[in-house]
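Q: Got a minute? One more chain.
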Amino acid sequence: MKPVLQALVIADHVYEDKSTGKKVIAGTFNQIFFNSPLVAGTPHQAGAGTGTPVHSGRQAGSPYAYISLTDIHTSARLLLRFVYLSDNPPTAIFQTAIEVRSLDPLQTVELTAALPALPINREGVYAFEILFEDELLGSFRIVSKEFPRQGA
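A: Always. Here it is, folded:
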C-alpha cells in the first residue's frame, strides 16, 4: 500500500515546541524573487570588462520542508525532489531518498527536512515533489521571478 501525503509545506523554518511536540511552521512561501548575477562590464555595473560574474548579494536561504504522512506500513522509501516544471519534460535539480518507518499505519508521521539553498536562477515554475515507487504522492509549487534591475 502506498502512503498518504497529508501535507507538504515549504517554509523559512520549522520549529518543534519541546513541551508539546507541536511543529511551528514559520515563513511559508510559494513565490521567490531572485537577482541574476551581474557581469562586470555590462550596463548594469560600473567597471569594465573582465566578464567575471558579480553576485548581487540577495540569495534565498536554506528553507525547510514539513511533510505529514499516514498509512505507513512498517516502512516506506520516499523520494523528495526539486524540479523545474517550465522545462518539457521537467528537469530534476536535486533529490534525496527518505526512509520513513511506523509500526502503526493509522499514526501520522511528521518529518522536517532541512533543504539546501534553492538554486533558482531563472524565471518559471519549480516544485518539490514526494514520490513513492515512482508514483507522485503530491507536490508544492514555487513560482520564481527576477527582480527588476534598477535603471533598466
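A: Confidence is low (pLDDT under 50) at residues 41-60.
Q: Perfect, thanks.
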